[in-house]
Amino acid sequence: MKLADFKTAEERVAILQDKVSVFAERAYQLDKDDVFPFENFRDLKEIGYPSLTIPKKYGGLGISLTEMLKMQEIIAKMDGSTALGIGWHMGITKHLGETDAWEPQKYESVMKDVLTNSALLNNAASERATGSPTRGGRPETTAERTNDGWLVNGRKTFTTLAPVLSYFIVSASIKGTDKTGNFLVERERDGVSIDETWDSIAMKGTGSHDLVLDQVKLDDSDFVEELSSEKKPAAGWLLHIPACYLGIARAAQETALQFASSYSPNSIKGTISDIPNVQQKLGEMELLLMESEYFLYGVSEKWDHATIDQRSEMKPLLGAVKLSVVNKAIEVVDLAMRINGARSLSSSNPLQRYYRDVRAGLHNPPMDDMTIIQLASKSISEFRNNL
Q1: pLDDT at residue 133 above 80?
Q2: Cβ proximity of 112 and 59 under 8 Å
Q3: How far apart are CA 19 and CA 47, in angstroms?
Q4: What residues contact 369, with CB distance under 8 A and at least 6 apart?
Q5: pTM score of the predicted model
Q6: Contacts of 374 (CB under 8 A, 6+ apart)
Q7: How do residues 40-80 score in pLDDT, each as one tens digit?
C-alpha cells in the first residue's frame, strides 16, 4: 500500500498516522541504545513516503508544502529524530524539483532512484572550521577540475541520515577560483566513507555523522549547482524544521494530559487535572500550541499559493516561524515537565527525551539572532519607505 495510491491529503495523512504509530513504541529503546532507527525508515519506504514531494512531471505526487508539514508533524510526534532526518530529504527533493536548480536530466535520474528504490538524499554542507553554512563560511572541502571530471576532498560534519543516504549533496570550494558549488556524490563512489562521530544527547537517531571524502572522483555532470555568494533565496521547505518541533511539543502535551488526568494523590479528591495551577499550565501549553499551529500553517498556505516573486519576499517571515515555533515548543515541553514533576526526569519517561530533542531546534537553521536582525532590517526598511 503506497500513500500515492490515495487521492486526498486527508486519506494519506490517516494512513501515515496509522503506519508510524509504532515509532513511538520504538523510540524509548532506540534512544536508550543510541542506535539509528532503521526500522522506521524501512516502514516509510514501504509506503512510498520519500517520493511524495517529487513533482508530478517527474513521476511523483508533488504534494503541497502544507501537506508535507502536516505529515512531518505526525512523524515527529512519534519520533523526533526520524522526522527531522526524513524532513531534509523531503524538503530538498521538493525544492530542487520546483526551482529547476539542477539540469533536468540529472534531477530526473536521481528521482527515478527515489521512486524505484526509495533512495534518500541530503545536503552535506557543515564543516567544523566554517560552522553553520548559513553564516557564509567558505568550505574547506575542495573540488579540483580534472580531464574527465572532478576530484573532491574534505570532511563534512552533521551529515544527517548518514547511515542510510544514497546521495550526498556536497558543497565545495572550486580550486583555482573564488567559486563554490554543490556536487552530487553517490555513496558507492570510491573514497566515500562515514566516520561515526555523532554523540549528541539530543536527536540521537538522526545519525548525523561525519562524511569523509578522500580523492573522490566525480563525473562532469555531478557538478550540479554553482552557489552564489549573494543573498540566498527564501526556502519554504525549511519549515519542516519547526513542523518537527511542533510535533514533539504535541507529544509532550499529550503526555502531560495523560498524567494530569490519571494521577490522584491521596491529598486531593479527583485528579490533579482539577487543580487550578495545573489547569493554568495546561491552558498555557494549549495557547502556545495554537499560536504555533496557526503561524506555521498560515505561512505554509501563503507559500503554497504565492507567486515566485511573492515567495522571494517571505524570507523574514519564514525565519520568524522557525524562531517562534521552536521556542514555543521548548516552553511547552518545560510546562509538561513541571506538571509531571520529578517523574519527568525518569529515563523511562518520554518527557526527558522530548526535553533533549526539542532543544536541538535552537541549532537548526536559521539561527535566532540572524532572524531577529532580518526582522529588524525589514521593519526599518518599511518604515523608511513610508516616510
Answers
A1: no
A2: yes
A3: 8
A4: none
A5: 0.96
A6: 315, 316, 319, 366
A7: 999 999 999 999 999 999 999 999 999 999 999 999 999 99
